[in-house]
Amino acid sequence: MTPYYRSALARIALARRIALARLQLASFLFAGATTFATCGPRMCPRLDGSKCSPAVVKGLPPGASMQQGVVEIPAGPPNTLTVTEQTGGWRLLFDGRTFDGWRGLGYDSVPTAHWKIENGTIRKLADGQVPRLADGQPAAGGDLMTRDTFRDFELTWEWKISRAGNSGVKYNVSEEISMAGAPNHAALGFEYQMLDDSLHEDNKVPSHRAGALYDLIPPNPNKVLAPVGEWNASRIVFRGNHGEHWLNGRKVVDFDLGTPVMDSLLKASKYRDIKGFADKRAGHIVLQDHVDEVFFRSIKIRRL
After folding, report:
1. Which of 15, 96, 143, 199 has the lowest CB atom count within 10 Å?
2. 93 CB contacts (<8 Å, ≥6 apart)?
3. In this structure, what CATH number is given to the domain that contains residue 246?
């Protein structure tokens, strides 16, 4: 055998060993359970001020990594599901092209004067961009709501907001309670706040800043928020009476319904007089129609 062929065979054998090692590593990460502390220099405390107990992440997907308690998972193209997400029970709430699965709260269809699909995103128009009717009044709008309801779930999405912008994603929403208490087609439910923390006046209230459980629990001050015009990645976990907000890979809010701490926060909030507001239910997921322009994409959910 000539030296050329011996060299070629050696290169092929080396490539096979590398590929096998990579496959074994991926299988180990996917099947194994990895424990990491959810409380640390960059993580949130519990509501009562105590330290969090260690959490367990079961089955990190191939390619995932953890840095300082932050799970980093490589994403596919916007508005698509990876193979891991498909096998894990995830589904798209937005396909990047249509409003299938959505309608306006209190409507049978989408109020398209306020909501558009552009370049693979759901765009909420700023109030000044909404078309005017013959009498000079803006066309009717309202919050955008999933047709389906979800009780225990994990929700992820990406968003970017305009300069000094304010919006949110609401969950545990009852359409009946919302229409009775807010006739302007605005949802009443727990809200994941989306805000330009640097310029919007709501930045003066800790529980109104980006990532907060709006008007209830402020986000961890060590959160990482992308600059205006850049995409943020958010996540809500709502299972049983336990809820979590995540922002760009870090948990920023942690709460439990029905506890003395949470009950006291509700009594001090804007929701205190809304009967049944905090009752756990199979609720709608809602994108808020607020004053400002905001974009959404890669909205995904799985039932827990």
Report:
1. 15
2. 101, 102, 146, 285, 299, 300, 301
3. 2.60.120.560
Tally Cβ neighbours within 10 Å of residue 237.
Answer: 17
Q: How far apart are CA 302 and CA 304, in angstroms?
A: 6
pLDDT tens digit sequence for 123-156 = 999 988 888 888 878 888 999 999 999 999 999 9
**Is the residue at 19 inside a domain?**
no
Binned at pLDDT 50, 70 and 90, residue 4 comes out as very low
Give the DSSP per-residue string, 162-178: -TT-EEEEEEEE-HHHH
Number of domains observed in the structure of the chain: 1
Output the pTM of the full model.
Answer: 0.77
116 contacts 93 by C-beta, under 8 angstroms = no
CA distance 105 to 266: 24
Alpha helices (H) in 32-121, listed in sequence order: 83-87
Contact 76, 82 (CB under 8 A): yes
Q: How many residues does the chain have?
A: 304
Determine, yes or no, domain membership for 254.
yes
Residue with tokens 């989408």: 110
How many other CB atoms are found less than 10 A from the CB of residue 209? 23
Query: Which H helix or E strand runs over 103?
Result: strand 102-104
Question: Which residue did the predictor score with more confidence, 96 or 23?
Answer: 96
